[in-house]
Design a protein that fits this description.
This protein has helices spanning 13-24, 31-40, 44-55, 61-72, 89-101, 116-132, 143-157, 159-166, 179-191, and strands at residues 3-6, 27-30, 80-83, 108-113, 170-174. It is an alpha/beta fold. Helix 2 (31-40) crosses helix 3 and helix 4 (61-72) packs parallel to helix 5 (89-101). Strands 2-3-1-4-5 form a five-stranded parallel beta sheet, sandwiched between helices. The radius of gyration is 16 Å and the shape is globular. Adenosine-5'-diphosphate is lined by residues 9, 31-32, 35, 52-53, 56-59, 64, 84-85, 87, 91, 140, 149.
């Protein structure tokens, strides 16, 4: 089974993806994590994307599609959870092609709905907690970059909601509840 988790920054995609991985032997493919790894390990590509990410803008489709392509060719275990990908219509089309090449299907697109106030609180809160604990804070977890990230979401990513709805693949889950409630709602979609 292959699933996309769709939603703005701070919607809880990463948290829910980890549950699906642990409980269903699925593989989380977070392009954000992959890009941060590339940045931290100082690869050429990491250097190219660092500034774009810190600003909150999207990196090029070509780069992220390349990252996903590599992973899709590897071990598939219980299936993939796409977290933070696709983020543009071009990425969605590329994903459809890549899955078809691998003989795979896209089974669910789950939109986590959360309002903007909560997103800002969650992300700024997450950054404050990390800072207090002496842990590294993401370069894009500040109010300025967050505005750019939200704008990128509404302009470039939210059209995917209509795209997948039209294909009959979209399920919407309320992302404002407790973590366990959201998890249960996702399970209902996945087990239906
Ligand atoms: P969040 O969902 O909290 O904004 P992510 O960890 O998913 O964070 O992504 C962080 C940043 O990485 C994005 O703001 C963007 O710069 C880059 N990025 C991640 N995934 C993609 C993607 N699919 N296409 C373009 N850029 C991406």
């Amino acid at each position: 089974m292959n699933i996309i988790l769709l939603g703005p920054p701070g919607a809880g995609k990463g948290t829910q993806a980890r549950f699906l991985c642990d409980e269903r032997d699925m593989i989380q493919l977070s392009t954000g994590d992959m890009l941060r790894e590339a940045k931290d390990s100082g690869t050429e590509m990491g250097k190219v994307v660092a500034d774009v990410m810190a600003r909150g803008d999207l990196v090029t489709d070509e780069i992220v599609i390349g990252l996903i392509r590599e992973k899709l060719e590897g071990d598939k275990k219980g299936g993939f959870i796409f977290d933070g990908f696709p983020r543009t219509l071009a990425q969605a089309d590329a994903l459809a092609e890549l899955l078809a090449e691998e003989g795979e299907t896209l089974d669910h697109v789950i939109e986590l709905q959360v309002n903007d106030d909560v997103l800002v609180q969650r992300i700024v809160g997450r950054a404050d907690e990390a800072r207090v604990a002496g842990q590294p804070v993401r370069a894009d977890d500040n109010e300025e970059s967050l505005k750019v990230r939200l704008m990128a979401y509404y302009k470039q990513t939210s059209p995917l909601i209509g795209y997948y709805h039209a294909k009959g693949q979209l399920a919407t889950v309320d992302g404002l509840g407790e973590i366990d409630e959201v998890k249960a709602d996702i399970a209902k979609v996945v087990d239906a």
